[in-house]
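Worked Example 4.2. Read the sequence first, then its structure tokens.
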Amino acid sequence: MDAKLMTWLPTLILAVVLGALGLRRFWVQRKQRLIAARRVVERPNSYYASKAVRDQEDAEWWQRIKLDRLHEVNREYVERLMRQIDGAGIDTLTRDERAFMERMANLEAPPRRGVRPDQSPWPSPA
């Protein structure tokens, strides 16, 4: 009986080693697939851009605000925000200040190039 067991022992050890190697390979490939799934690659000519690019586009857009068409209170506020952008940078603006600048830039402006149009399935109320 011991001789019969000794003939199967190398086969059993080989099967265990190959099974362990197969499991290790499975987990390594799984980890690589998960890492690849998390990686986001931006498509060229997409609507998505980095924060620095968006900030630069916003600053250029806001430079086109026609101050002579604004109310004097809004004009003073826009001028103060533009000085703040020139001095300390666009990152110092709060969300409300950015929204205000966007509203002032969109008063009589044509649609911005590169901005995705509204894709609402419902007709506009106007």
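Now turn to a second chain, presented in exactly the same format:
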Amino acid sequence: MSRVLFLLLATAALAASCSGSSVTSSAPSATVTDGAVLLRWNPVSEPNVNGYRVYYGTASRSYAQPYGQGVVSAAATTTLTGLPGGRRYFFAVTATNSLGKESGFSQEAFVDLP
């Protein structure tokens, strides 16, 4: 098991409406085990945030999921499985609220899958 920590600092706190602000995350991490990637980030403290979306791809800021269709996570953690090895993957997180709005992307993390 290899453990890779990434420090992602957002540029601004998430606005209550999730209208284009970045997700705040002071110490996210990624752990790679047997080809699975466990991502963790600090939860957003805004009262109307009800979940997160995780985006990933093999090029920086070019994700396999269109905006609004990231992998849904109710908690500030998710595990991604089935990613082919031998590649570098880039990850970003958004927050969603009870009105269906989504924040801008967090700063990006990356991990090399063996």
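Notes for the reader: The two ends are 11 Å apart (CA to CA). The beta strands are 2-5, 29-33, 36-40, 49-57, 71-73, 77-80, 87-97, 109-113.
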